[in-house]
Design a protein that fits this description.
The complex is a heterodimer.
Chain A lengths: L28 E2 L6 H11 L3 H16 L21 E2 L13 H10 L1 H8 L2 E6 L2 E7 L1 H5 L3 E4 H7 L1 H7 L10 H9 L4 E5 L9 E6 L6 E2 L2 E6 L4 E9 L7 E3 L2 E6 L4 E8 L5 E11 L4 E8 L4 E4 L2 E4 L5 E10 L4 E10 L5 E10 L4 E10 L6 E11 L5 E10 L4 E11 L2 H8 L5 H12 L1 H4 L4 H16 L4
Parallel strand pairs in A: 3-7, 6-9, 7-10, 8-11, 9-12, 10-13, 11-14, 12-14, 13-15, 14-16, 14-17, 15-18, 16-19, 17-19, 18-20, 19-21, 20-22, 21-23, 22-24
Antiparallel strand pairs in A: 1-2, 3-4, 5-6
Helix pairs in contact in A: 1-2, 2-8, 6-7, 9-10, 10-12
Chain B lengths: L1 E10 L2 E11 L4 E5 L6 H9 L4 E9 L2 E2 L5 H7 L1 E4 L6 E5 H12 L6 H14 L10 E2 L5 H15 L3 E5 L7 H18 L2 E5 L13 E6 L2 E6 L2 H9 L1 H5 L1
Helix pairs in contact in B: 5-6
Classes of the chains: A alpha/beta, B alpha/beta.
């Protein structure tokens, strides 16, 4: 594309990743590089886990060894499992007051704006630093309603029965190599239980931070929304920029019971040296609603396809996903909806933006099993390519085994138009401002679904990407 | 003054303009007329700095050479192009776009609420449905709505010089009258220099031209007063340019 002359280089800010700072490493415990059964046992022992969990970990580790690397998606050949620290304990316990959190860790979260956001708009917060949750809070009125929001490790101690009933049932260790890895070395993550007919009217947020180089973060999240209840859970993630790679591989399991609602929002903004390989799945019962809102801005490689299993009549699943792939990034994202009951409905809206040689792929599955009579699904998949060196791919798969169903698929690929840029620039906006306006407009159907503060943050992150793009 | 000296413009190696000289003073209305393909729109776009056009010669605004400036730098200096075919930007609401233009153009800012109120009165005065302010920019707008929005943007932008590129094409009589009258009033009140490109004398009945310039084959073929537009309407270009 013709560039608009002349670009003044002093006007262009190249500061791009605001969260790239790091703190000195002060850990209580850090496992040696590499993975073997001893490391797995040591993690379990340090946490004082029940026997069934230790056995679960060991079995999962065996499956991890047996499983092949997924070869159908992004290029993962550069991951060296022997270079990763699988467990880093930064603090001895989870604090209830920010004042009690170790100084450097607290400073990190201050700079990320978490305590401030907590005061303004959140019902509860979990802050995970390295492998474990270092801070946790929940409004008293929510505690009084019987709502549980705690770290996954804490849940295993306090609510062993519920955990054993649900943990690893929706995503068994054998699901894929990274689910097996997570199951073997998992640490941290959130546990949420919302009792029947209870509405959590403020979002609950978890914030994940990696500080140590070559760190592997393997949090495990389990959410159970009981009949007629509702909750909105938000997660954010960042890491410092190091020249070596870190690995983030989470597993998230969600149970949405009859008539319940769960919205799970992710703003993933890892630094571009993080592999982000995450398995997320929700099971939705009769008339339940599950919504995944998934923003992928950071990371080196992301492979993530939040899925919904619609098992009850009239269950509804929704996946709204935004991916921005910049220089050196491959965002391989999408969603899966599996219809297993009559009158189930689903919708996937995927918007991807690729620039500076980045690559964005949409990978999706819609499956309608025999008996899913009158199931309906709609997939809208739009890609915006900002320059000639960037790439966008779409890999939709539809498996329909029931004849009385409706499935719509729309896909568009557009390049950012010179006429659009000129039009906006002739109103006095610089090229990167014009680009950001077009891009923010492009993702508006999704950003409008976010709470105001997050939508502002998403727009700000995109503006920052665009600023780096001129010149 | 907007001063154009010996302007030559090429598009993809094809010469479109062959040395145009033109002046627009503050508060003055200059009409550009000419057959299809005579180079009128090329003139509009190259003045606004569209990167597709290769430009030689000189464009000056109030004594400053803007020939090499990017579109946004020209806009910052106070040049505004009302497009013949405004493009759509999905998801960018008109309200937010206009507010951003306002913020760019004004050092002292009023509150967003006061701005919105002011905007609604301006929209109503133009018979522009205020509901459209909540929609995406030009997204699904009719021809007339797009043209009215160009004028609304112009009012927010508050330019020194304006290029109206066939603002009258595709408009019904009511919309045309509204736009022309608004433009005439604003140009007079704010002393804006107006370069209006048109095929028809109709709009010039309400937006009176001080000068009418006929372009043919990328050159100025004839300059006259407002009567020239009337003569062209009656007799056609061939008669008048001879």
């Amino acid at each position: 594309m013709t560039r608009f002359v002349p670009v003044k280089s002093d006007k262009v800010k190249l500061d791009d990743y605001k969260y790239g700072f790091s703190m000195p490493e002060h850990y209580v415990y850090k496992s040696e590089e590499g993975l073997n059964e001893e490391v797995v046992l040591k993690i379990s022992q340090m946490k004082g886990e029940p026997l069934w969990m230790t056995a679960f970990r060991v079995k999962s580790y065996e499956q991890f060894l047996k499983k092949d690397m997924p070869k159908w998606g992004a290029d993962l050949s550069t991951i060296d499992f022997n270079k990763v620290h699988y467990f880093v304990r930064a603090s001895d316990k989870t604090e209830k007051n920010w004042e009690d959190v170790p100084k450097e860790i607290k400073e990190t979260y201050d700079r990320l704006g978490i305590p401030e956001a907590e005061k303004k708009l959140l019902g509860g917060v979990k802050a995970q630093y390295e492998s474990e949750v270092v801070y946790g809070s929940l409004l008293k009125r929510f505690t009084d309603m019987g709502i549980i929001f705690c770290g996954m490790d804490e849940a295993l101690v306090k609510y062993p029965k519920i955990v054993q009933e649900y943990f690893g049932k929706l995503i068994p260790p054998g699901d894929n190599k990274f689910a097996a890895l997570n199951s073997a070395v998992w640490s941290g993550g959130s546990f949420i239980y919302v009792p029947k007919n209870t509405k959590v009217d403020l979002p609950l947020q978890a914030y994940f931070r990696i500080n140590t180089p070559n760190m592997g973060q393997f949090e495990r999240t389990l959410i159970i929304v009981d009949e007629g209840a509702s909750v909105h859970y938000v997660e954010g993630c960042t890491a410092p920029i190091y020249s070596t790679d870190s690995l983030h591989s989470a597993v998230v399991e969600i149970y949405v019971k009859k008539g319940a609602r769960c919205r799970y929002t992710t703003i993933q903004n890892w630094s571009t040296n993080v592999y982000n390989l995450v398995t997320k799945r929700a099971k939705v019962e009769e008339e339940g609603v599950m919504e995944w809102i998934d923003g992928n801005l950071g990371s080196k490689i992301t492979m993530k396809y939040p899925s919904v299993f619609l098992v009850g009549r009239k269950a509804h699943g929704e996946i709204l996903s935004v991916a921005v792939a910049g220089k050196g990034q491959h965002q391989d994202a999408g969603g899966k909806c599996v219809h297993l009951a009559p009158e189930t409905t689903s919708r996937i809206i995927s918007k991807s933006i690729s620039l500076h040689g980045g690559r964005a792929s949409y990978r999706g599955l819609i499956q309608m099993n025999k008996g899913a009579k009158n199931a309906r699904s709609k997939v809208v998949c739009d890609a915006l390519i900002m320059d000639d060196i960037s790439r966008s791919d779409t890999y939709p798969v539809n498996k329909v085994y029931e004849s009385q169903t409706t499935l719509e698929h729309e896909a568009t690929v557009s390049k950012i138009g010179e006429e659009q840029l000129f039009y906006l620039m002739s109103r006095g906006f610089e090229e990167h401002e014009a680009e950001a306006m077009i891009v923010n407009g492009f993702i508006e159907p999704i950003s409008k679904e976010l709470p105001m503060e997050y939508s502002v943050e998403l727009n700000r992150l995109i503006n920052m990407q665009m600023e780096g793009s001129v010149g | 003054m907007l001063k154009i000296t010996n302007l030559e413009v090429k598009v993809e190696d094809k010469q479109i303009l062959n040395g145009i000289d033109l002046e627009v003073k503050p508060g003055e209305v200059v009409a550009i007329m000419g057959l299809n393909g005579s180079g009128k729109s090329t003139l509009a776009y190259s003045l606004a700095g569209h990167p597709k056009y290769e430009v030689m010669g000189k464009i000056e605004m109030d004594g400053e050479n803007i020939t090499e400036m990017s579109p946004n730098e020209r806009a910052e200096k106070g040049l505004f192009l009302a497009n013949q075919h405004p493009v759509a930007i999905y998801g960018l609401t008109v309200n937010s776009f206009l507010w951003q233009i306002y913020k760019k153009r004004n050092k002292e800012k009023s509150s967003i609420l006061d701005f919105r109120k002011w905007l609604e009165t301006q929209a109503q005065a133009l018979d522009f449905n205020p509901e459209l302010l909540k929609r995406g920019l030009n997204d699904g707008f009719s021809g007339g709505e797009k043209k009215k929005l160009e004028i609304l943007q112009l009012l927010v932008f508050n330019p020194k010089y304006v290029i109206l590129d066939e603002i009258d094409s595709g408009l019904d009589v009511d919309a045309l009258t509204k736009i022309a009258k608004t433009m005439a009033a604003v140009a007079k009140q704010r002393q804006i220099g107006v370069l209006i490109i048109t095929h028809y004398n109709r709009i010039l009945k309400f937006l009176k031209a001080d000068k009418v310039v006929v372009i043919e084959g990328g050159k100025v073929a004839k300059i006259g007063g407002p009567e020239l537009a009337v003569e062209i309407e009656n007799n056609g270009y061939k008669e008048e340019v001879k």
